[in-house]
Design a protein that fits this description.
The protein is α/β, with parallel strands linked by helices. The chain has one domain: Vaccinia Virus protein VP39 (Rossmann fold, 3-Layer(aba) Sandwich). It is built from 10 helices and 8 strands. Strands 1, 2, 3, 4, 5, 6, 7 and 8 form an 8-stranded mixed sheet that branches. Helix 4 links the parallel strand 1 and strand 2. Helix 7 packs across helix 10. The longest helix is centred in the middle third of the chain and has 18 residues.
Amino acid sequence: MKREAVRNSFRDRQHALEFDLRATRSDIRARLSSLLIEALELKGRERVLDLATGTGRFAQPVCRQLKEGKVVGVDEALAMLGLAREKAQSEPLPSYLQTAGVAQALPFRDSTFDCGFVAFSLHHFGRPSVMMEEAHRVLREGGKFVVLDPVVHKVRDPVDQSLIDFINTVFRRSHGKDFQFYCSEEIRELFTRGKFQITQADLYSASFDQVGMDGIPTGRHWLEIAEGLDGKSGAMRERFKESYFQFQKRGDGFHVKGSFNYAIVCGERS
């Protein structure tokens, strides 16, 4: 898929609708949003930055924790922002504002926000270190920034490296050449290089044992990976089963059993 086609998909209203519908079916995302709120340690009056806000799926529960504060969502995908505005008409959230912008050059002054977060989007940034620098710039001194993202296992050997390369290759077909999953250690390194003092670094494991991929974030891409491994080495297939999930076809359907890990890393601006 050409790069421009990938970029345009995030600006297409139908794509935004499908993305939002899949998110509503995910119990995993709901559980992780609660952990995100815990990490932010909100008092109720904060001005909160939501980087890559999308349709506002994570901004909504954060808003409900605020009495006098605001969540400001930033995204470069206008279709996502448009859908968030449509949803606000039926379920108004006065504490949620949004603006178009890119994470690597945020349209805000220094020290504008009390805290901020980026949820399920770190893997889309082509220059995550620049994004972290911008987050550091727009937070006040002592402000917290939280990254919540799916993570791959740390590379231990060439088999791991080949497997992760293949995983990223499959995702890039739909999400563009900048797509990259990180391990939790790499996310912590981004915080350190961004001059944040790490205050929390947790790993949340979500297990599943079910028919089909409903409710599993980006499940259809992971299914494509599992099927694509048929043409890879036996070592890669076994490592995938060990690290991610087992996949068995059953008639016209399939059964999956395994787990994915999600990192929640919090840093404080010094």
